[in-house]
Write a structure and sequence with these properties.
Blueprint lengths: L2 E7 L2 E7 L4 E4 L12 H16 L9 H8 L17 E2 L6 E2 L6 E6 H7 L4 H6 L4 E4 L4 E4 L2 E2 L11 E5 L2 E3 L12 E8 L13 E7 L7 E9 L3 E11 L5 E12 L5 E2 L11 E13 L4 E14 L9 E2 L47 E2 L6 E17 L3 E18 L11 E2 L5 E2 L3 E20 L5 E15 L2 E5 L27 E23 L4 E24 L21 E2 L1 H4 L10 E7 L6 E20 L5 E12 L2 E2 L12 E2 L2 E14 L2 E22 L8 E22 L5 E16 L22 H9 L11 H5 L21 E12 L3 E12 L2 E2 L9 E2 L2 E12 L4 E8 L12 E9 L14 E12 L5 E9 L2
Parallel strand pairs: 10-13, 17-21
Antiparallel strand pairs: 1-2, 2-3, 4-5, 6-12, 7-8, 8-9, 10-11, 12-13, 14-15, 14-49, 15-16, 16-18, 18-19, 19-22, 20-48, 22-23, 23-26, 24-25, 26-27, 26-28, 27-29, 28-29, 29-30, 30-31, 30-33, 32-33, 33-34, 34-37, 35-36, 37-38, 38-39, 39-40, 40-41, 41-42, 42-45, 43-44, 45-46, 46-49, 47-48
Helix pairs in contact: 1-2
Amino acid sequence: MPQIIPATRSNRKVILIQLSPFQTRIRIDGAPRLLQLHRQAQAIALKGCGEAVHMKFKHGLMATSAALAAALGAPAYAQGSPNVIEELVVTAERREQSLQDVPVAISAFTSENRDLIGITTVQDMTNFTPGLQYSSQLDRVSLRGVGRTTNVHAADPSVSVYSDGIYTTSTVEAGKTPLFLDRTEVLRGPQATLYGRNAIAGAINLISRRPTEEWYAEARATYANYNRHLVEGAVSGPTMIPGVLFRLVANWEKQTDGWYDNIVPGMPDEGNVIDTNIVEGQLKFNFNENFEGWAKLTTIVWRNGGGGPGSRGTWTPAPYATFQVANAATTNDPGYGCSGRTTNVVNRSPLGCTNPQLDDPRKIASAVPFQVKLDDTLIFASEWTWHASNFDIKYTTGGARYHYNLNRPPNDNVAPVERFTLPGGLTIFPQQLYNYQEREEWWSHELTLSSTHDGPLQWLAGVYYWNEHYEQPTSTYLFDQTQIAQPVGASCPRFGNVCPPNTLLQRTHDEPRFHIQSKAVYGQIDYSFTDTLKFTAGLRYSEDTKTGSEEARVICFAFFACTPGLYPEQLGPFTPAVDLTQTLFVPRPTPPKGISQDFTFDPATGRARREYDGKWDQVTGNVGFQWEPDADTNAYLRYSKGYKPGGFRIGVDTALTANPYTEKETLDDVEFGVKKSFGNFQANVAFFHYWYKNAQIPLTIVDTAGGIVQANSVFYNVPKAISKGVEVETIWQPVDGLQILANYSYLDSHITRARGPVDPADPAALDPDANPIGSLADCAARQANADTTDNCAADLFSLLQGGGFQLGQDLKGQKLPHAPKHKVAVNVNYTWQLPTASLTGSVSYTWRAAQYGSIFNRSYTRSPSWDQVDARLTYKPENDKYTVILFVRNLFDDVGYEGGAGASRREGYIGPATASAPGTPVTVIPVSQGISTTYPITPPRTYGIELQYRFF
């Protein structure tokens, strides 16, 4: 007969079931922690211990069947209705606890709930997570108005992502299917002690499905419109080695038809055109009753066309700019470079191309295709635990290596369709070819000690170390433009007026290489004054260092502002090429902060080089009280201080900017929450108030004074901002089989102090909603004073043309980016119990208020409010052998917005592009043609069928 040993840990009920000859330890904080049962012993345990398992815990399980299913690691719905209010275990505080017991605002998604509701992507997760925003195109996540605003790896995200305890720099793994992930937890608010670095806004915990004691195998297949296929399978069970279990899971996903219809003949559609596969293997080791281990190895391969992070996912409903040649900010994207100058596009004249996105957000005219690749990718994670009599020692270690490559076109040998000949015979290929890469390697180590004894005082302590190396080269090319192979010699005075050759025909090249280290030590205690009142306090010290270098070269060709007249070799504005590297990057006597060595120049490559060195540290922590007057109520008051290290604005979208250094961010949060159950109704409410300092916002300001075209790219630290709000998550089961989930969040994130930044899209602050510091008259008066230095001009013509005049603005009251004020999500699902099966219908409705994509809240950075309806129908026999799911997403094919809009100035020229004689300047006048707005939009309507079959 099994021996039942009741105990408590961390003020939570624990049952230890002693089975002979097998020992099983079930640590329950309202739900199971660890189970090691032999199949034959299982029946004894269930028969002899059914009543014990069914006893009412701190937060009792709903029924014996649900409790047993949870204790045995099986989903509760397999025993009955799939839509019951289950007890959910989370590891938010590094211990398995009931979600309702944790004094943290958490949204958690099990694999079963994701299948039921239809949460298949990270973007879906944002619908049912208050405050969460995600850009699938840019792989950027924000939470409660605090988030990542750049993909520069020398800067950090604001939401930490942990995959099986290993920090990762990307959110991509959170998009794995439910066959891979057992649970996803989104911890809202700064996780100041246990997660620390880069958890200033929160953390996302990804927990993989683990190997099973018994044989398990499952296969799934999905087919959807746009010719999307997904095939995946998993197998798990014991190995021939005693105490060693395994799990193997793999999938292959392919979509051949893009969401964006390309009207250029012969050019492929874009938008989620993918060919990806993931293979993952796990081993679990039960060495003895005190020592256990687990390890996972994953490989991911992308062979995508126009799909995946970095590919097209935007809508630019603006007229094409008038004729722009290579250096004049031309790209092959609608709204900028008029890439529609092809055979069937309306008006092929360079002065009058028509953007197909004016009428349809999902039509494009692109003559250069995408390619998104991910190869050489390995992800490793492991944890090793020693269970002592009163504490556990856990060592978690792992890392990743990958190579991401974004090309336009797929290789440098593909000629762009677009070309034209200027008066005088010069042929121009205005479309830039583009290559962006990330080569990443990182490894982390973490050692934690946590108490497991009975008593009012519980503790946890740990040390952490992270080591990362990355390279992030970015290049643009001008196809077949041989004039730039040898820039004019006079533009390289440091090399004796002989420029190094440019054999790759690169217009720009920027290559950062960085080494990043993070160290931390932390500890947290929980003390229970009584059975209902608990005190928590934690501290963490973090130290971050970033050292590295950056190399860059800039060639100017076929643009009137390539320093005309400065070099005698220049024959008009369009030829030859000019090397701007030594003109743009001038060493300073005293390098600015964060730069250990200012510009040096390599005569072999022509590149300028600069070295960086930065160090930041911070003490963070939390203190709080938790009150649980009864088994169904949890109220908490919590203060936390969050931190994100500083960094550098380098690479990706800029080159050797003047002042790349940025200060660290800090955030103080006061939060009050209540988690309450009323029988068949459950509600979790959180109120929070942030005091946010030094938010890192990237700004790129074009030099509007004329001459050499360059931009000042910086990280602007917003001095002070506030984010406050309320979040409500509810589950209601009014009758058997019917479940209603309803979430609402209110978010007010705004700047309280920021004076001086210049709007990149409106540097002269001409917009009616702009709040410039000073005026044109003030500027003229200041410049009249010889002792005053000012960066603005008093030339009205320059002002009207958008050149030569810049005004900083007062941004007090402006909303932070990607922070909709209101967000609503409702899911209604109902299960019909048929004679031999169940049929569940699920309908979800989401709505989000308007939001901005910039700290400059203007009409051109505003994404409108939007809503979406999804539906699913799930059929499952009572033996749970297979499942059939019919689904439709975005039922009404609405346009939704993943975040706020981006904006940029559209520039061109006016005047004849002719020259009467060699060396005669061309009459050209720069003109700003307005502001182009780009919206990050959600996918169109998709629908299909999914089949699941379980072999064991």
